[in-house]
Structure formats: C-alpha cells, structure tokens
Write a structure and sequence with these properties.
The protein is of the alpha/beta class. The chain contains 3 helices and 8 strands. The protein folds into 2 domains: 72 residues, 2,3-Dihydroxybiphenyl 1,2-Dioxygenase, domain 1, CATH 3.10.180.10; 56 residues, Signal recognition particle alu RNA binding heterodimer, srp9/1 (2-Layer Sandwich), CATH 3.30.720.
C-alpha cells in the first residue's frame, strides 16, 4: 500500500473567519468552494502540494445527519513542519497563542496558535533551520 496524500478536514460553525489564518497569513489559495446559502459550506485551501479543508457543521449535517454530533467533538490538532518558525511568528502575531515558543527535546522550535474556529495548530522548525 502506498499512501499518496492526507488532507485534514476541519469542521467549523463558519468558514469565513478562518480564511485569514490560512490565506492571508500563510499564503494558501482557495482552490474549491461550495456555497451553502449566503456563506461557504466547504472550502479547499492549497499551497503547493499541501491541502486543508474546512466544512461547516451545517453542511456536514446535510451530508450525513446520523453522524452530525460526532463531528462536534473537536477541536482538531494539527502539527505542521515549516522551514522558518520566525516567519510564522511574524505572520501570526495577532492570533491566540496556546503553546508559547519552546525548544523540544526532539530538536525543534515550536509555537502553537488557535485558529478562529478553535482548532489548535502547532508550527515546528528543526533547530538548525530556525
């Protein structure tokens, strides 16, 4: 078996507040959007070979109502390796920090932010690259 790609799907009440986190700060592009009334029900964000998806709870409930409450258990935790932690820190300076900058025993510098929907995102860079 050869796994080709893994793309996380984060479930949220509203997608629009999360776009600034990924698009404006981290340079992702909105590559697919599915409206749900006047707002987005789903969005696929891409940067190079990286992807992340957001879907609203309301949209998911329409897709599969029997599992609707299971999707509300979150939050999701993402661990993202980056080339420069300082660049991330500069870009994310006004987002909520849940994990202060630290150096780990396994050789990375890390910092964690909460996205506008409450999902937790840790950025990590090898110490030599920071």
């Amino acid at each position: 078996m050869n796994v080709e790609k893994i793309t996380p799907v984060l479930f949220v009440d509203e997608i629009e507040p999360c776009l600034g986190f990924w698009v404006e700060r981290l340079g992702f592009e909105r590559t697919m959007e599915v409206p749900d009334g006047p707002k987005l029900g789903f969005v696929l964000l891409s940067k190079g070979n990286l992807e992340i998806m957001y879907q609203t709870f309301a949209s998911q409930r329409k897709d599969n109502p029997t599992l609707a409450e299971e999707f509300r258990r979150g939050p999701t935790f993402l661990y993202i390796e980056v080339g420069s932690l300082d660049t991330i820190i500069d870009a994310m300076n006004d987002f909520q920090v849940f994990l202060s900058i630290r150096t780990t025993f396994y050789g990375t510098r890390e910092v964690g932010y909460e996205d506008p929907a409450g999902h937790l995102v840790v950025f990590a860079a090898p110490i030599a690259a920071s």
